[in-house]
Protein backbone atom coordinates (compact mmCIF):
# COMPACT_ATOMS: atom_id res chain seq x y z
CA UNK A 1 0.00 0.00 0.00
CA UNK A 2 1.32 3.46 -0.77
CA UNK A 3 0.50 6.86 0.62
CA UNK A 4 1.80 10.19 -0.59
CA UNK A 5 0.81 12.36 2.32
CA UNK A 6 1.84 15.79 0.99
CA UNK A 7 -0.46 15.51 -1.99
CA UNK A 8 -3.25 13.76 -0.09
CA UNK A 9 -3.29 11.04 -2.70
CA UNK A 10 -3.64 7.53 -1.46
CA UNK A 11 -2.77 4.66 -3.68
CA UNK A 12 -3.94 1.16 -2.89
CA UNK A 13 -2.20 -1.08 -5.34
CA UNK A 14 -3.41 -4.57 -4.67
CA UNK A 15 -1.74 -6.08 -7.63
CA UNK A 16 -2.20 -9.77 -6.93
CA UNK A 17 -3.15 -8.66 -3.42
CA UNK A 18 -0.29 -10.56 -1.92
CA UNK A 19 3.34 -11.33 -2.51
CA UNK A 20 4.37 -14.75 -3.70
CA UNK A 21 7.99 -15.48 -2.87
CA UNK A 22 9.82 -18.73 -3.26
CA UNK A 23 10.78 -20.37 -0.01
CA UNK A 24 8.50 -18.13 2.04
CA UNK A 25 6.80 -19.95 4.90
CA UNK A 26 3.65 -18.10 5.89
CA UNK A 27 3.16 -19.86 9.22
CA UNK A 28 6.66 -18.95 10.45
CA UNK A 29 6.62 -15.36 9.26
CA UNK A 30 6.35 -12.19 11.31
CA UNK A 31 6.00 -8.59 10.21
CA UNK A 32 9.10 -7.11 8.61
CA UNK A 33 11.45 -5.37 11.03
CA UNK A 34 10.43 -1.77 11.71
CA UNK A 35 7.06 -2.17 9.99
CA UNK A 36 3.96 -0.36 11.18
CA UNK A 37 0.29 -0.45 10.30
CA UNK A 38 -1.43 1.78 7.78
CA UNK A 39 -2.99 4.95 9.16
CA UNK A 40 -6.03 4.38 6.93
CA UNK A 41 -6.82 0.66 6.73
CA UNK A 42 -7.06 -2.45 8.82
CA UNK A 43 -4.93 -5.26 7.49
CA UNK A 44 -6.45 -8.43 6.10
CA UNK A 45 -6.93 -11.02 8.88
CA UNK A 46 -3.84 -13.19 9.46
CA UNK A 47 -1.82 -11.25 6.89
CA UNK A 48 1.78 -10.23 7.56
CA UNK A 49 3.73 -7.15 6.52
CA UNK A 50 6.36 -8.56 4.18
CA UNK A 51 8.03 -5.26 3.28
CA UNK A 52 7.81 -1.76 4.73
CA UNK A 53 9.49 1.41 3.51
CA UNK A 54 9.04 5.13 4.13
CA UNK A 55 10.99 7.59 1.99
CA UNK A 56 10.87 11.06 0.50
CA UNK A 57 10.48 10.84 -3.27
CA UNK A 58 10.85 13.56 -5.86
CA UNK A 59 9.47 11.55 -8.78
CA UNK A 60 6.91 8.80 -8.14
CA UNK A 61 4.96 7.39 -11.09
CA UNK A 62 1.28 6.93 -10.22
CA UNK A 63 -0.23 4.63 -12.84
CA UNK A 64 -3.75 5.62 -13.86
CA UNK A 65 -4.08 3.11 -16.70
CA UNK A 66 -3.01 -0.42 -17.50
CA UNK A 67 0.56 -0.57 -18.81
CA UNK A 68 1.14 -1.48 -22.45
CA UNK A 69 4.42 -2.65 -23.93
CA UNK A 70 5.26 -1.61 -27.49
CA UNK A 71 8.67 -2.55 -28.93
CA UNK A 72 9.90 -3.47 -25.43
CA UNK A 73 8.98 -0.02 -24.10
CA UNK A 74 6.33 0.30 -21.39
CA UNK A 75 3.71 2.97 -21.95
CA UNK A 76 0.92 4.30 -19.74
CA UNK A 77 -1.88 6.19 -21.45
CA UNK A 78 -2.57 7.99 -18.17
CA UNK A 79 -0.25 8.60 -15.24
CA UNK A 80 0.83 11.30 -12.86
CA UNK A 81 4.28 12.16 -11.51
CA UNK A 82 4.23 13.01 -7.83
CA UNK A 83 6.58 14.13 -5.08
CA UNK A 84 6.22 13.68 -1.35
CA UNK A 85 6.56 11.19 1.46
CA UNK A 86 6.00 7.69 0.12
CA UNK A 87 4.98 4.89 2.48
CA UNK A 88 5.02 1.38 1.04
CA UNK A 89 3.42 -1.46 2.96
CA UNK A 90 3.44 -4.82 1.21
CA UNK A 91 1.24 -7.43 2.86
CA UNK A 92 1.42 -11.18 2.48
CA UNK A 93 -2.03 -12.76 2.78
CA UNK A 94 -2.61 -16.32 3.96
CA UNK A 95 -1.93 -18.80 1.17
CA UNK A 96 -5.49 -20.14 1.13
CA UNK A 97 -7.11 -16.74 0.49
CA UNK A 98 -8.00 -15.55 -3.01
CA UNK A 99 -6.76 -12.23 -4.31
CA UNK A 100 -10.41 -11.21 -4.79
CA UNK A 101 -11.18 -11.78 -1.08
CA UNK A 102 -8.21 -9.68 -0.05
CA UNK A 103 -9.00 -6.92 -2.54
CA UNK A 104 -12.64 -6.82 -1.42
CA UNK A 105 -11.47 -6.44 2.20
CA UNK A 106 -9.61 -3.23 1.34
CA UNK A 107 -12.20 -2.07 -1.21
CA UNK A 108 -14.95 -2.20 1.44
CA UNK A 109 -12.86 0.03 3.72
CA UNK A 110 -12.37 2.56 0.92
CA UNK A 111 -16.12 2.60 0.33
CA UNK A 112 -16.55 3.88 3.90
CA UNK A 113 -14.29 6.88 3.23
CA UNK A 114 -14.71 10.05 1.22
CA UNK A 115 -12.67 9.52 -1.92
CA UNK A 116 -12.39 10.10 -5.64
CA UNK A 117 -11.65 7.03 -7.73
CA UNK A 118 -8.75 7.68 -10.10
CA UNK A 119 -8.36 4.25 -11.69
CA UNK A 120 -9.37 0.66 -11.05
CA UNK A 121 -8.86 -2.57 -12.94
CA UNK A 122 -9.22 -6.28 -12.32
CA UNK A 123 -7.73 -9.37 -13.89
CA UNK A 124 -6.40 -9.26 -17.42
CA UNK A 125 -7.79 -5.74 -18.01
CA UNK A 126 -4.90 -4.56 -15.77
CA UNK A 127 -2.37 -5.71 -18.36
CA UNK A 128 0.78 -7.70 -17.68
CA UNK A 129 1.47 -8.34 -13.98
CA UNK A 130 5.21 -8.38 -14.71
CA UNK A 131 5.01 -4.76 -15.89
CA UNK A 132 3.33 -3.76 -12.63
CA UNK A 133 5.81 -5.67 -10.49
CA UNK A 134 9.05 -4.75 -12.24
CA UNK A 135 8.51 -1.41 -13.94
CA UNK A 136 5.81 0.36 -11.93
CA UNK A 137 6.21 -0.89 -8.35
CA UNK A 138 9.84 -1.94 -8.79
CA UNK A 139 9.22 -4.95 -6.51
CA UNK A 140 10.38 -7.89 -8.60
CA UNK A 141 9.13 -10.53 -6.14
CA UNK A 142 5.52 -9.63 -6.99
CA UNK A 143 4.31 -12.06 -9.57
CA UNK A 144 1.37 -14.24 -10.46
CA UNK A 145 -1.22 -14.96 -13.11
CA UNK A 146 -2.66 -11.82 -14.71
CA UNK A 147 -6.22 -13.03 -14.05
CA UNK A 148 -5.74 -12.67 -10.27
CA UNK A 149 -4.54 -9.06 -10.13
CA UNK A 150 -6.46 -6.08 -8.80
CA UNK A 151 -5.41 -2.43 -8.73
CA UNK A 152 -7.06 0.67 -7.38
CA UNK A 153 -5.86 4.27 -7.14
CA UNK A 154 -7.97 6.75 -5.19
CA UNK A 155 -7.62 10.24 -3.79
CA UNK A 156 -8.80 10.41 -0.18
CA UNK A 157 -10.56 13.54 0.99
CA UNK A 158 -8.82 14.06 4.35
CA UNK A 159 -10.22 17.49 5.24
Give the overall shape.
Answer: globular
Number of helices: 2
Terminal CA distance: 21 Å
Structural class: mainly beta
β-strand number: 8
Strand order across the biggest sheet? Answer: 3-6-1-2-8-7
Reading the helices and strands in chain order gives EEEEEEHEHE
Q: pLDDT average, as an integer?
A: 78
User: Any idea what the radius of gyration is?
Assistant: 15 Å
Task: Quickly describe the structure.
With about 160 residues, this protein is mainly β. Helix content is about 15%, strand content about 35%.
Structure notes:
The protein is mostly beta strands and 159 residues long. Helices cover 13% and strands 36% of the residues. The protein contains 2 helices and 8 strands. The protein has helices at residues 99-111, 129-136; strands at 2-4, 9-12, 48-63, 68-70, 73-75, 79-92, 115-122, 150-156. A 6-stranded antiparallel β-sheet has the order 3-6-1-2-8-7, with helices on one face. The longest helix has 13 residues, at 99-111. The radius of gyration is 15 Å and the shape is globular. The chain starts with a strand and ends with a strand.
Keywords:
six-stranded antiparallel beta sheet, 13% helix, disordered N terminus, 159 residues, 2 helices, 8 strands, globular, two-stranded antiparallel ribbon, mainly beta
Write the layout of secondary structure elements.
Blueprint: E1 2-4, E2 9-12, E3 48-63, E4 68-70, E5 73-75, E6 79-92, H1 99-111, E7 115-122, H2 129-136, E8 150-156
